[in-house]
Amino acid sequence: MTRIPLAAAVVFSLSVLSSLAHARPLEAVASFTVIADMVQTVGGEHVHVTSLIGPNGDPHVYEPTPADAQALRHADVTFVSGLHLEGWMDRLISASGYRGTPVVLSTGIKTRGMEEDGQQITDPHAWNSAANGVVYVRNIISALKQADPADAADFQANGERYIQQLQALDSYARTQVQAIPQAQRKVLTSHDAFGYFGDAYGVSFLSPLGFSTENEASAADVSTLIRQIKQEHVRAYFFENSGDPRLVKQIAAATGAQPGGELYVEALSPADGPAPTYAKMFRYNVDQLVAAMKASH
Amino acid sequence: MTLYTSLVQPFVEFGFMRRALVACLALGLGSGPIGVLLMLRRMSLVGDAMSHAVLPGAALGFLVAGLSLPAMGLGGLIAGLTVALLAGLVSRFTSLKEDASFASFYLTSLAAGVMIVSLHGSNIDLLHVLFGTILAIDDQAIYLVAGIASFTLLLLAVIYRPLVLECFDPGFLRAVGGRGSLYHVLFLLLVVLNLVSGFQALGTLMAVGMMMLPATAARFWATSLTALMLVSTLLATLAGLIGLIVSYHLGVASGPAIVLTASAFYGVSVLFGRSGLLRRFFSQPHLSN
């Protein structure tokens, strides 16, 4: 007699627990807006994502606040892009008391390196090709499944849909760029953030700063670049939403390159801007670049 | 590599090098004399303090007008002036010395600035955006820097005598009926203006170096005030020229290259200057005889 109520109580309390777990979305923290949006898209209603860096922020030189440490402390799962982009994140994680290690979304992509001032460094802007975006999404799916097995099916379904969307964008970018003659596929940007994009779709990007926005340009860098732009007839230049546009404006003025507009690289725009999600950002960048490269002839 | 290709050709070929050089010349003309006066008034570190003090003004300018250089520059100017004036007032009318009151006010100002930036929650590195690099001098920046240099020279010419009196013998100036505080305030205005102009060209970290290092180096060569100012201006401009050429050929960042050239001038002056170490220890003919 006493066993049945006990069993019923156990079943009841389990169902309460699981409905509680269901009511409370998984708390996820992402280092910047681009990957926060990807996590949100895969997680859907089961995940609440906080991005440490807001829209239009620069992830290279971020100053964390106590609110960030607090968000991390209460996080069930955290996401970083990795490849030494968010150097400040490790310290923040150890300071916040967050247990566990962040999910590194760039795991499994084919990284591209570059010689910069004699040092071999890895380009961290992996998400700027949609094919790499797919790898990010796969990593997100498996991380979310692990953190919240109850909603695994939803994550899988959302993720698959998202991957299809990104693959469509990938071939969209390819066809758009291929419609432009090889010689015209050259643009100037303020720092080296489009390497993966360039490799994947066949566009050359020139820039006065290296992979990080932190370093200062030398007169030698700027003069080499100006000569190169004149020689190769680069006609379009772009700003990035998270950086200082003055240097690239100066170089453009010296070479006669025309402004192509603003590109979104390391940060999404606010919700009312042209690039509020990763998918929209990618498409927006492709359209901007293609329009500028076409017009430059 | 001929002398022409290494020294002249970079400036002929590239507009950004020419603009950088003009900016350095203007900076030297304005900051050179101001640096000398700062040094003589024992205010050599005030420039550094001021470079932090401008932050809240720049931040407020950003909040009001967004990423607009004039608004942020003006805000920085007002904040810098306020700190300079308040510090000057406190040191005049209380027993606190000028350096101590400057320290109190600039630290307050700096903290207020960081607070304002963090309240806004944006992650744009304000000072980085506001104060550029010597390689990205545009027309707007060059007019500003040149305008400030011209204004500095004119105002210095007008207030030169009373200002110098105020520096060396404030008691006498008061005795002959001069208004010492007025000249002091005008001088502080010039200091802040020249720093703002230096920030535009070199960034907050490097601008003070362009102001103080040529002045301290000049101290080893000249004794009269006029000569000090001339030597300081000359050294500042020369540091700009050499720093740019070094940055062009060696591929090192331009701002630090210019300031390190000024540091090298200082080092050479300390050793070999007319009142430098070597003279002092090795050539004392009138005593050895």
TrEMBL record, chain B:
<feature type="transmembrane region" description="Helical">
    <location>
        <begin position="220"/>
        <end position="246"/>
    </location>
</feature>
<keyword id="KW-0813">Transport</keyword>
<protein>
    <submittedName>
        <fullName>Metal ABC transporter permease</fullName>
    </submittedName>
</protein>
<dbReference type="GO" id="GO:0055085">
    <property type="term" value="P:transmembrane transport"/>
</dbReference>
<dbReference type="InterPro" id="IPR001626">
    <property type="entry name" value="ABC_TroCD"/>
</dbReference>
<dbReference type="GO" id="GO:0010043">
    <property type="term" value="P:response to zinc ion"/>
</dbReference>
<feature type="transmembrane region" description="Helical">
    <location>
        <begin position="20"/>
        <end position="40"/>
    </location>
</feature>
<feature type="transmembrane region" description="Helical">
    <location>
        <begin position="252"/>
        <end position="272"/>
    </location>
</feature>
<keyword id="KW-0472">Membrane</keyword>
<dbReference type="Pfam" id="PF00950">
    <property type="entry name" value="ABC-3"/>
</dbReference>
<feature type="transmembrane region" description="Helical">
    <location>
        <begin position="141"/>
        <end position="163"/>
    </location>
</feature>
<keyword id="KW-0812">Transmembrane</keyword>
<feature type="transmembrane region" description="Helical">
    <location>
        <begin position="183"/>
        <end position="208"/>
    </location>
</feature>
<comment type="similarity">
    <text>Belongs to the ABC-3 integral membrane protein family.</text>
</comment>
<feature type="transmembrane region" description="Helical">
    <location>
        <begin position="60"/>
        <end position="90"/>
    </location>
</feature>
<dbReference type="InterPro" id="IPR037294">
    <property type="entry name" value="ABC_BtuC-like"/>
</dbReference>
<dbReference type="GO" id="GO:0043190">
    <property type="term" value="C:ATP-binding cassette (ABC) transporter complex"/>
</dbReference>
<feature type="transmembrane region" description="Helical">
    <location>
        <begin position="102"/>
        <end position="120"/>
    </location>
</feature>
<keyword id="KW-1133">Transmembrane helix</keyword>
